[in-house]
Amino acid sequence: MRILMVEDEKTLAATVRRGLNNEGFVVDVAHDGVGGLWAATDNSYDVILLDLMLPLKNGYDVLKELRQRKIWTPVLMLTAKDGEYDQTDAFDLGADDYLTKPFSFLVLVARIRALIRRGAPERPVVLTLGTLTLDPVNRSVRRGDTGISLTAREYGLLQYLMRRHDQIVSKAEILSNVWDPAFDGGDNVVEVYVGYLRRKIDLPFDLHTLTTVRGMGYLLSADRIPAAAAGGHPEG
């Protein structure tokens, strides 16, 4: 398995490289964004470890250009708590996963293996579900011809739900895929953000596509009329 690590902290990069080599991975290293973009474009990798704060071209721009070039290699973003983008959700940047520095090497290996198992199926440039569209390249969301403004967290939640459309997903699944693994708050935060999202993608359009399945989780489906209009009462 071949991995590209784009990291300007040379000591950290060398340490991680040695550790991954010992785990049986082949690791290429680039120390700036330009070199990382070139390597990721010209070579085939199973996973890319991409630092956010890089010289010459930051990780945000590297990832954006990779996706624009339709390179769908899974990307694990490495973020610093005091970094410029620390308030920006990694999934909003198009990443598949992320770790906050400092991180556990064992956790890093586990995340890499999970991404490899998941693989890199070619992703559509635009995710579509009924009249709802999400463009992961420019991070725009529309309902028909109407643009919808979402926060980074709302966008990450919607992107995850659209990729799992017509499946019931639990609060625990959402937390583990959309929130920081270090998040130690209650799972009621999911309910709060589902409410925020519903008020933006459904209510203004008199739709009820994001539903609560009592005791199980949430379901995002294609356009349908509100249950209330059909004589029922949709749950929260």
Helix/strand layout:
Elements: E1 2-6, H1 10-22, E2 26-30, H2 33-42, E3 47-51, H3 59-68, E4 75-80, E5 97-101, H4 105-118, E6 127-129, E7 132-135, E8 140-143, E9 146-148, H5 152-163, E10 168-169, H6 171-178, H7 188-201, E11 210-213, E12 217-220
Parallel strand pairs: 1-2, 1-3, 3-4, 4-5
Antiparallel strand pairs: 6-7, 7-8, 8-9, 10-12, 11-12
The first-level CATH class of the largest domain is given as Alpha Beta
Helical run tally: 7
Head-to-tail CA distance between termini: 45 Å
> Which value, in Å, is the CA radius of gyration?
19 Å
> What is CATH's topology name of the largest domain?
Rossmann fold
Largest sheet: 5 strands, parallel
Beta-strand share of residues: 15-25%
The figure for the number of domains is 2
- So what's the overall shape? globular
**Count of distinct strands:** 12
Mean pLDDT: 84
**Can you tell me the residue ranges where pLDDT is under 50 for at least 5 consecutive residues?**
226-236
Helix content: 25-40%
Proper CATH architecture of the largest domain:
3-Layer(aba) Sandwich
Strand order of the largest sheet: 2-1-3-4-5
Can you say what the CATH homologous superfamily of the largest domain is?
A: Response regulator
